[in-house]
Structure to design on (771 residues):
């Protein structure tokens, strides 16, 4: 019997995430913590399994160690399968040549044998830097129904922000007549979400052709999509209405975390019908002390809160001692805020110690910047970290 | 640690808390926000290096099977050993077991097929951080036939069946062993057996076979008490925090003890307690929520006031509600403007708006699984 998978997902997770500064010094962007217990990559992986796609290649390149360890055998996402499942695909040495992945299209091209092993009809291309819940099986259905060679998921964005994205110019039936990568003057507000479904044979053909082109930058947005359009292939847009956020910058990462809060959060991770799976911390329930105040916040297992926490997201095993205040901030796992310390409008990475009476960040306002503390550092007693600063070493003050 | 296999009795004290064990084994009684009682016994074994645990079941064990799954959460999904469920064995002529000894006779096959030197037998009604390796080491040092773990208590047990030990102060050898003594007084120290014992595997098999030949039925009465002079029984004094769940009031009291940082540190900080994960989202505290001195599990959404409570996974507290001194199990939904004091809800209970319910510490108000009030 010929064993096959109808659709194989390829997840581009090699990005450095340089605009996340200290948060990606030692880890790839998809491994960055989000929403008190998740990492960014939990969202595309959970979307895959919830959409019935059980074969995922994860392409890694930059600082892959922690990401590889996190994904492991894929069991937390139910992606440990006898045939299929999740596989880490790293750059490798071959008989004829050896090379790093040079651009998104080249990364997929170099792993052609992985995709072909499953004899797929369709290839789903994903990236590991977005927060969203999406049923890819609906998109695949639309792709099949329209008979397209490529379907691109698209979302409406404010026109003034459209120049940050790949912009789709479409006909009334949703077919794409033009694709512009980060145009200075966008013609439409329909942004590509970086999620593509290709009919497998077409993709393989264009990847091979692209590899032979010495002038190509080997990028999906810049090379493959325009080439397919020029080649007269049928390209469709697929409208997505729902929460979607690129968390590639400090401010968007902060905003997206805050979108989890409130009476009816802008982004609800708690819906049992579309669970976001992750590797769970081994920790007892969080303890909220007798004098603690916790308002409008998300708090993960293992936290010990005796101080004040307002409008913040606290990951597992965070400690906020009595007399300490955390406001408008994201604290990642294992961070300790000692007595009398104040943390405001900040993102603090894992296992940071903020010593007694230290101050991190400034009150949130339109012109204040977000303070960022890299993992494992200590802010000394009484030291003050200015708003908007990025600190990745132990800090004793100016 | 010398090679040791674990045996856990999942049903043995079910009758002590019928409210919680009507639809489940003692082993799968929820405790501490996100655990089941068996997690403590199982984690103690795993953390001591045990990789094979036989779990003796009798009835109502669907929830236990669901909880344990393949055993991977405890790192017990193994090629050799791991978690092995041992449902009652009976042929045409036999009825399922009624005593511990008969249960052991039923698992002789399991015991003879194993190769480990020692067996540690544990029940599920105790919550403690116990170093099994240290107990086995003590057992070897003493050259004991049986080592029984005890804990000094001042309150006589409310349990329907319990054993007190009288060890020799110098050697630790048990001089006398009494079942259900009725002359215990409050305030006087006595040594309560905590239902954990160690013996060599071959000794256990020989004892079971001998008991079968002699027609014995009770491990405590026929084997332990009668042979205290001939069998070398030693007592291991467990000095840490120990919570025995012998009644609903015990359950409630020990749940509340988790709000004490010292108890939490001893149970959870020294090493991990493993349990089934549910991939719940982290808990959300909405504006207007007031939470004090409480343990909150993942998946909760709190809009009201919560004081001195244990909230399990997925509990919802509506606006204007005040919940004090309560243990609310998984997916309990409390509506708006509800007042609860000293209430235990089982899983999936719904309390509708404006209800007002109260019990007291000695007699918590219990609402059974799935009820809507």
């Amino acid at each position: 019997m010929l064993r096959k998978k109808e659709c194989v997902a390829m997840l581009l997770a090699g990005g450095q995430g340089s605009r996340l500064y200290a948060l990606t010094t030692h880890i790839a962007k998809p491994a960055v913590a989000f929403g008190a217990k998740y990492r960014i990559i939990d969202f595309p992986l959970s979307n895959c399994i919830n959409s019935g796609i059980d074969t995922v290649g994860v392409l890694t390149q930059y600082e892959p160690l922690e990401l590889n360890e996190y994904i492991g055998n894929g069991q937390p996402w139910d992606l440990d399968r006898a045939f299929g499942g999740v596989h880490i695909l790293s750059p490798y040495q071959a008989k004829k040549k050896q090379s790093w992945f040079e651009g998104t299209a080249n990364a997929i091209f170099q792993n052609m044998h992985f995709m072909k092993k499953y004899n797929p009809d369709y290839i789903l291309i994903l990236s590991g830097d977005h927060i969203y819940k999406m049923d890819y099986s609906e998109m695949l259905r639309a792709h099949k129904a329209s008979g397209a060679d490529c379907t691109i998921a698209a979302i409406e964005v404010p026109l003034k922000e459209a120049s940050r994205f790949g912009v789709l110019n479409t006909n009334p039936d949703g077919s794409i007549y033009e694709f512009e990568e980060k145009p200075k003057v966008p013609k439409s507000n329909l942004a590509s979400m970086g999620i593509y479904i290709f009919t497998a044979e077409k993709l393989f053909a264009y990847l091979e052709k692209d590899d032979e082109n010495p002038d190509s930058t080997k990028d999906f947005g810049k090379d493959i999509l325009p080439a397919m359009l020029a080649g007269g292939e049928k390209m469709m847009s697929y409208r997505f209405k729902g929460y979607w956020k690129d968390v590639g910058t400090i401010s968007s990462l902060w905003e997206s975390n805050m979108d989890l809060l409130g009476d009816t959060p802008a982004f609800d991770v708690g819906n049992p019908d579309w669970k976001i799976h992750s590797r769970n911390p081994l920790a007892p329930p969080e303890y909220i002390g007798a004098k603690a105040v916790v308002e409008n916040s998300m708090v993960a297992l293992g936290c010990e809160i005796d101080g004040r926490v307002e409008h913040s997201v606290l990951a597992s095993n965070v400690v906020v001692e009595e007399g300490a205040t955390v406001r408008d901030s994201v604290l990642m796992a294992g961070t300790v805020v000692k007595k009398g310390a104040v943390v405001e409008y900040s993102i603090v990475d894992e296992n940071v110690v903020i010593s007694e009476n230290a101050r991190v960040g400034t009150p949130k306002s339109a012109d204040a910047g977000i303070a960022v503390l890299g993992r494992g550092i200590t802010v000394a007693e009484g030291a003050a970290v200015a708003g908007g600063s990025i600190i990745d070493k132990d800090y004793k003050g100016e | 640690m010398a090679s040791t296999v674990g045996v856990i009795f999942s049903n043995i004290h079910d009758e002590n808390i019928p409210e919680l064990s009507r639809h489940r084994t003692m082993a799968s009684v929820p405790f501490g926000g996100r655990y089941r009682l068996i997690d403590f016994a199982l984690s103690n074994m795993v953390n001591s290096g045990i990789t094979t645990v036989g779990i003796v079941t009798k009835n109502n064990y669907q929830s236990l099977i669901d909880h344990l799954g393949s055993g991977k959460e405890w790192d017990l999904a193994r090629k050799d050993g791991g978690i092995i469920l041992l449902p009652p064995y009976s042929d045409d002529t036999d009825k399922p077991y009624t005593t511990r000894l008969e249960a052991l006779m039923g698992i002789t096959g399991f015991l003879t097929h194993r190769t480990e030197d020692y067996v540690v037998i544990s029940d599920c009604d105790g919550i403690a951080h116990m170093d099994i390796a240290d107990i086995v080491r003590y057992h070897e040092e003493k050259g004991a036939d049986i080592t029984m773990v005890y804990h000094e208590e001042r309150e006589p047990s409310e349990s329907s069946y319990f054993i007190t030990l009288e060890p020799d102060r110098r050697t630790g050898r048990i001089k006398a062993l009494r079942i259900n003594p009725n002359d215990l007084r409050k305030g006087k120290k006595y040594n309560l057996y905590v239902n954990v014992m160690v013996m060599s595997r071959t000794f256990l098999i020989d004892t079971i076979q001998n008991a079968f030949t002699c027609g014995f039925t009770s491990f405590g009465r026929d084997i332990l008490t009668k042979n205290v002079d001939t069998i070398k029984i030693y007592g291991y004094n467990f000095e840490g925090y120990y919570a025995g769940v012998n009644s609903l009031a015990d359950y409630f009291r020990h749940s509340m003890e988790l709000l004490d940082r010292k108890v939490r540190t001893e149970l959870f900080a020294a090493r991990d307690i493993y349990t089934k994960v549910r991939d719940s989202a982290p808990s959300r505290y909405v504006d207007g929520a007031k939470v004090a001195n409480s343990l909150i599990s993942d998946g909760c959404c709190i809009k009201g006031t919560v004081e001195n409570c244990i909230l399990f996974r997925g509990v919802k507290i509506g606006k204007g509600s005040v919940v004090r001194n309560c243990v609310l199990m998984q997916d309990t939904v409390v509506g708006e403007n509800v007042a609860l004091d000293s209430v235990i809800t089982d899983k999936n209970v719904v309390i509708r708006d404006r209800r007002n319910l109260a019990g007291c510490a000695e007699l918590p108000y219990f609402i059974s699984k799935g009820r809507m009030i």
Q: What stands out?
A: Chain B has a mean pLDDT of 93. Chain B has ten helices and 28 strands. Residues 201-214 of chain B form the longest helix (14 residues). Residues 4-268 of chain B form a domain with the Spore Coat Polysaccharide Biosynthesis Protein SpsA; Chain A fold (CATH 3.90.550.10).
